[in-house]
Design a protein that fits this description.
By secondary structure, this protein is of the alpha+beta class. It is built from 13 helices and 22 strands. The strands form 5 sheets. The chain has a 6-stranded mixed β-sheet with strand order 3-2-1-4-6-5, sandwiched between helices. It has a 5-stranded antiparallel β-sheet with strand order 7-8-11-10-9. A 5-stranded antiparallel β-sheet has the order 12-16-19-20-21, with no helix packed on it.
């Protein structure tokens, strides 16, 4: 009891008068947990829940009866809940059951207005979890094992060994149930418990304490690094939507790789459509940031792309810009370019200047060959940019204007005959600029399509 009280105080798990949902299986851990919470002088309102996983139909009725009688004897409210498994479980069955179990407990806690959900994980469970994560490969978060507190969930027995728990019940003369599924080596956790840990104890008799202590240290260091990463991330986000994340590139390139991994994970986690990107793909993004040239991009799972710009790293789930087909544009006339999601409009005008900007240009009507042609860029394209004074390749213009590589094919080029009149939305051609003696002009405008 003293050890459990110490754990509760150390992690600020409970307050006087709290309503607590207790996961109760009838096993030694959960029975000890319920007894100890009941014995605390904190006026707790306890509500025990048995969750039927539907995997042991011959044993479950006896366990439910045992738990119901235990709660009745302690004066604790009790209920039984059943997990409904989906027809097809894509993930590991045990992982799926655990997620569903927590969902049920969270639902009951919400309904009961419970401040906490108490789970009976002990120090041996902690050691097993650390070993499992190490075997499978894990980040620091995994090697930190089971957190004593996570949201509403608390684990008052996390610093108490399984031997101490069973001795405690024996001293009270309290019985418990042994789940038969814990005795089979069908599951990896059971293999660790029944085979690996006993073998490791021949090298270090205190291996459980050692692993639990290491997990505690790692969790502390992991938490510290995480706080640094979160603060750093807040300064790096240039723009964020539900499908697009933009990060300032230069600062990313100066961050140590250890922190950069965290920064990218935190940033990606802040966008719903980008959560769950694995460590290997985060390393791919880091390689893009540090080694690729501007305009390079990589494809990631779930339709995510990372694009290295000149000053911004863009990570997006938006569709990749499509290459523009070839169209004719009448004057006057209007052209919808669906693949670029823009509209081009051409109109005759008496204006020879004024009102021009990147989305609007006025050109000499008598220098044009009709109809105008609109298409995407081709190798070897060149024009005479207004204000530049000499010929320039379109490719070089895009590079100098810092246009991302995968956006270049989606920029409309307006041509008269074979000559570029306007790189739409960017720059006109000096050859078609109205002169002093120009009589008629054409106004070209670019609009975003309305969705």
């Amino acid at each position: 009891m003293d050890k459990i009280k110490g754990t509760i105080a150390k992690y600020s798990m409970l307050h006087d008068g709290d309503t607590v949902v207790v996961g109760l299986s009838g096993g030694a851990d959960s029975v000890t947990l319920l007894h100890c919470l009941k014995a605390l002088d904190m006026d707790l309102n306890l509500y025990a829940v048995y969750i039927d996983h539907g995997l042991r139909p011959t044993e479950t009725p006896h366990e439910i009866e045992f738990c119901a009688n235990l709660c009745k004897g302690l004066g604790v409210s009790f209920c039984e809940e059943q997990i409904s498994l989906p027809p097809k479980i894509i993930a590991n069955t045990q992982d799926t059951l655990r997620e569903l179990r927590y969902e049920i407990l969270e639902k009951i806690a919400y309904e009961r207005k419970a401040a906490r959900i108490a789970i009976g994980h002990n120090k041996d469970d902690q050691a097993e979890t650390v070993l499992l994560h190490f075997i499978r490969g894990s980040s620091l978060a995994g090697l930190g094992g089971i957190p004593p507190v996570r949201g509403k969930i608390i684990r008052p027995l996390i610093e108490t060994s399984r031997v101490d728990i069973e001795n405690f019940l024996e001293s009270l003369g309290v019985k418990f149930i042994t789940d038969s599924s814990n005795l089979t080596q069908k599951y990896m956790r059971n293999k660790v418990r029944l085979s690996l840990l006993p073998m490791l104890k021949t090298y270090n008799p205190n291996i459980v304490d050692t692993l639990a202590r290491n997990a505690d240290i790692i969790r502390g260091e992991d938490s510290y690094i995480e706080r640094i990463a979160i603060k750093k991330t807040m300064t790096l986000i240039s723009r964020r939507t539900d499908r697009r994340l933009e990060l300032f590139l230069s600062p990313l390139q100066t961050i140590e790789k250890t922190i950069l991994r965290r920064v990218l994970k935190t940033a990606l986690g802040s966008v719903e459509t980008m959560k769950g990107i694995g460590a290997v793909h985060i390393d791919d993004i880091i390689t893009l940031v540090n080694n690729a040239s501007a305009g390079a991009s990589i494809d990631l799972p779930n339709g995510i792309r990372a694009i290295k710009g000149y000053s911004i790293l863009t990570i997006t789930t938006e569709e990749k810009p499509a290459r523009i087909n070839t169209y004719a544009l009448s004057v006057p006339g209007e052209l919808v370019i669906k693949e670029a999601k823009v509209v081009l409009r051409a109109a005759l005008t008496d204006e020879t200047q004024g009102g021009e900007n990147k989305l609007c240009i006025i050109v000499d009507a008598d220098r044009l060959k009709y109809p105008l042609t609109v298409r995407g860029r081709l190798d070897g394209d060149y024009f005479y940019p207004v204000g530049f004074g000499k010929r320039k390749k379109v490719q070089d213009f895009f590079v100098d204007d810092k246009v991302p590589k995968d956006a270049r094919d989606s920029i409309p080029l307006v041509l008269s005959g074979g000559d570029i009149v306007w790189i739409a939305g960017m720059r006109g051609d000096e050859r078609f600029k109205p002169k002093i003696d120009t009589q008629r002009c054409v106004k070209l405008e670019l609009f975003q399509m309305k969705t």
